[in-house]
Structures are given as structure tokens and as C-alpha cells.
Design a protein that fits this description.
five-stranded antiparallel sheet; Immunoglobulin-like; about 425 residues; single chain; alpha+beta
């Protein structure tokens, strides 16, 4: 048996030590150029290869970093295949366009790509994380363009101005709109600076609109425009000059610095100049201070003397009202309307004390109505309409008794009326 095993070892080839490692996914980085003018793009391609196939697409890095513009051109991700150790490996390639936005060296830290691939030996999907090396590049300013601020490099740059309104003939209430459009080719419009700055003109109010940016990509070549507009409203006479707009830029095709510009314009507004607050002279200030002091003095006198008198008069009037026959009569009527047996006697006694002449409680009709109420309350007789009859009879009897007294109030122990009049004599009974 030992001889057979030794013979098999001599005949069959042994697997190479690195064969298992050679069957792992691979990541390659293709970065042919490492220098670019700020705003121009560099081509970076990451390619992942596996010995079988990928059941899921790779998870690619975003490459985001400060002062770096990263773009994915159309059809940036494509399938690939290569021969590795005599076998065909399949894979996917991702194409990036990275543009430094400022001059100077830059470095992307190591980036990770997560790959899911099918292991044919085990028949199960495997996952691997592949990492790149640090990627270094630089933004380089070409000779002769060192003084550009901001730095703009493009294949073409134009400025166009539109004016809505007549700047030479304006009156308060008129308006004028200024619109400036910058168009670029070969660079993103994100590199364009603000075009219309704030201008302070006498008699003019400015209302800027939000800038509008639009970008296109033609086979990896970016282009676009930036539109800014400001509306100027004439509020008073005045006006002034709106400055011109100019941009210095580097022409990448001709290798020279150029300038794009639009002219300024003059606003002329006919009308009175913006009003200014008139200063107060010392005499007017003294008059105002004296009027304020006089007003404060009057308020102090009112608080000190007038308000207490008014309060006492109001309290006296309220006391007379509360002690009057009319107030007692209204309270008695409310008790009768509520059919309140408990409150009837106190209200009737209070009213009777304030009636001059015979006691209304001794009137035959009132006594009969009170007896009927007592019988109803303690005898429990009657209900509904019969229950309301004694109350109605009492109300009628009291009204009759009040008419017979002539509404005269007792004067003993009570405050006199505000405008006392001679009371008529009571009719004979």
C-alpha cells in the first residue's frame, strides 16, 4: 500500500503553492495622466476581474474629496473579459472623470470595491473587498495664466447681456431688468463665479433673482451656462452707473488668456431725490417737551382728584339702586319665575319693606295665592298646569298690589332718590 501511494505521488502533479491565491478576484487601476488644468478632467478606470461570474454588481467607491469634481460619463460601467493564466476571466470596468478645482497636488486615499463572485468549487457566492493604492495627481496652472482669479479654463466662454426697459428714461415707479448669461464649453458651469454683484444707487431698489445653472455632457465633454438677472425699481430721483461684467479665462485650445465682457449702463431717474428726515429745531423740541409735561400733569390731576370722585358717585348710585323698590321688585319677579319656594318669603319681605302704604302681603289676593302655594307644596296636590296656577295667581296679585301703591318707596332708613319728586297720595281702600 505504501508503494502504491508513493507511485501515485510521483505520477500525479501537485497543485502550485499560489494556485489558490491566483483564483481570487483582482482589481486593476488605470490612471494614465496625473496632471490637469483646474477644471479639466483626468481619466480614471477601475476594473474588477473574477475567475467565474458575478451574481451581483460590484459596489464602487464615490471618490468624493474636497476641491475635486467627480463625474461619471455616459456608459461609464461596462462588462469586460480578459485572459488570466490561460483562462477567460469576466469582470466589470468603471470609468471616472475627475477634475481638480484648484491648483496644487491632491491625493485620493485608498478606495474599496466590494465584489460578489461565484466560487465554482463550493457552488456558493463569495464576497471580497478589494482596495486600491492611494491615487495622487495635481492641478497645474499653465504658463501665463498664473494671475487668473478665479481660474477658468475652457474651450469657449461667452457673455451675453439682455436689458428689459429703457435705462435713460425712467421715473419713480418704473423698473428695468438686467440679465447676463455666461456660456462655457469644455468645463462645468460650476466653475463660473457670480456675475452681477450688489450695487447701491440712490433712489433705486435692486431685487436679484436666484442664479440658474444648466449643464450638459457631450461624450464626456462638459458644457453649460450660468444665468443671473437683477430687477431695478426706481423709487425716487437719482440713479447711477451699473458696472460692466468681464471674465478672464484660459483658452485650452489656443493656450492663451482671453477676456469675455459685456458693457455697463447708466440709470437716469427723473424726479425728486430721496427724502431725508428734517431735523428738529430747539424751539420745536421745547414745545413738544412742554406739551408732554402738560399731558402728564393732566393725567396726574385726573388720577388724584377726578377718579376718586367718580368712584364715590358710582358706589353711591349702586347703593341707591340696590336699596330701591324697583331692584327688590325685579328680584321678587325672578324668584316667582323660577318657582323657588325657599327664596319667595325673603324676597317678598324685602320688597314689602320698600313699599309705602298698606302691606301688600295683607292683600286678600296675595294671601290666597300664598295659601294655595303652601297647600300645593306641602299637600302635593296638582301638577303641570295646576302646579303653575298658584304662581301665576301670586304674580297677578302682587302686580295689582304694586299698582295700588303707586310704586312709592319707603323713605325711612333709605337713601333719597337722585331726582326726588312728590309722591302721589295712596288711593283709599
Amino acid at each position: 500500500m505504501r508503494r502504491l501511494l508513493l507511485l501515485l505521488c510521483l505520477v500525479l502533479p501537485l497543485p502550485a503553492a499560489g494556485q489558490e491565491a491566483d483564483m481570487q478576484p483582482r482589481l486593476t487601476v488605470d490612471f494614465p495622466q496625473t496632471e490637469a488644468i483646474p477644471g479639466q478632467s483626468l481619466s480614471l478606470r477601475l476594473t474588477v476581474l473574477v475567475p467565474s461570474f458575478m451574481p451581483k454588481p460590484p459596489v464602487w467607491p464615490s471618490l468624493e474629496a474636497p476641491n475635486l469634481l467627480v463625474r461619471l460619463p455616459s456608459r461609464s460601467t461596462n462588462p469586460v473579459s480578459e485572459r488570466v493564466n490561460g483562462e477567460t476571466w469576466s469582470g466589470v470596468s468603471r470609468h471616472y472623470r475627475i477634475s481638480p478645482m484648484v491648483p496644487g497636488p491632491m491625493t485620493l486615499p485608498p478606495q474599496q470595491v466590494v465584489v460578489t463572485w461565484q466560487d465554482l468549487e463550493s457552488g456558493t457566492p463569495q464576497q471580497a473587498t478589494l482596495t486600491t493604492e492611494a491615487i495622487s495627481f495635481a492641478g497645474v496652472v499653465p504658463e501665463g495664466a498664473e494671475g487668473l482669479d478665479p481660474f477658468i479654463a475652457a474651450a469657449e466662454l461667452t457673455l451675453v447681456q439682455e436689458i428689459e426697459g429703457d435705462p435713460a428714461v425712467m421715473v419713480p415707479g418704473d423698473s428695468l431688468k438686467r440679465r447676463v448669461t455666461a456660456e462655457v464649453q469644455g468645463v462645468s458651469p460650476m466653475f463660473l463665479p457670480p456675475l452681477l454683484g450688489a450695487v447701491d444707487l440712490p433712489g433705486v431698489a435692486a431685487y436679484p433673482d436666484a442664479p440658474q445653472l444648466s449643464e450638459q455632457d457631450d461624450r464626456g465633454v462638459p458644457s453649460g451656462r450660468r444665468v443671473e438677472s437683477v430687477s431695478y425699481l426706481a423709487e425716487a430721483g437719482g440713479g447711477g452707473a451699473l458696472p460692466s461684467v468681464s471674465l478672464d479665462w484660459y483658452d485650452t485650445d489656443e493656450g492663451a488668456v482671453k477676456t469675455a465682457s459685456v458693457p455697463g449702463l447708466e440709470l437716469q431717474i427723473d424726479g425728486p431725490p430721496p427724502g431725508r428726515g428734517a431735523s428738529l429745531d430747539p424751539l420745536r423740541i421745547a414745545v413738544l417737551l412742554g406739551a408732554a409735561a402738560l399731558g402728564l400733569g393732566l393725567l396726574a390731576l385726573l388720577w388724584r382728584f377726578v377718579l376718586p370722585v367718580l368712584s364715590r358717585r358710582r358706589a353711591a348710585r349702586r347703593a341707591r339702586v340696590m336699596a330701591s323698590e324697583g331692584h327688590a321688585w325685579r328680584a321678587l319677579q325672578q324668584v316667582i319665575a323660577k318657582r323657588d319656594h325657599a327664596a319667595l318669603r325673603p324676597a317678598l319681605d324685602l320688597w314689602a319693606e320698600r313699599i309705602e302704604g298698606p302691606d301688600p302681603r295683607r292683600a286678600r289676593e296675595v294671601e290666597e295665592a300664598l295659601l294655595a302655594l303652601g297647600a300645593q307644596r306641602y299637600g302635593g296636590a296638582g301638577g303641570g298646569t295646576a302646579k303653575a296656577a298658584p304662581w301665576s295667581a301670586l304674580k297677578s296679585a302682587l302686580e295689582l298690589a304694586r299698582r295700588q301703591t303707586g310704586h312709592r318707596e319707603a323713605r325711612s332708613g333709605q337713601l333719597p332718590a337722585l331726582n326726588p319728586t312728590r309722591a302721589p297720595s295712596a288711593p283709599a281702600r
